[in-house]
Amino acid sequence: MSEDTSLIIFNTNKPNALLAAIKAAIDQKTITTWSYTQGHFTHTPTQWVNKAWLKPVVDEGVALRFAIIHPTNGVVTSENYAVYHGRFIEMMLAHFDAEFTNADATAMPTAVDRIKAA
Length: 118
Fold this sequence. Notes:
alpha+beta; globular; four-stranded antiparallel sheet
């Protein structure tokens, strides 16, 4: 997967370990504002829960990437898109800053993002 086809990119040489650490922190309630189901992540505050899902994609030895997915029969608004970008990166910086070298996010949806227009 090339860098121009991802929503959020965390450069790391251990993407599988980073993904496992995120899930473990959620399971252990260290992270309380995100949850995951069937491997996809959603933001849990009432205003944002299930407004979108982040699907992880491991690029072995290079990066952990996340594409955005719309909810069933729903849309991802520009506001939801921005919140999911920003809050997920914020959580990663607060809890896993030593586990990746940098983070990037696309400003607009890409080919791998599943967005329904409003």
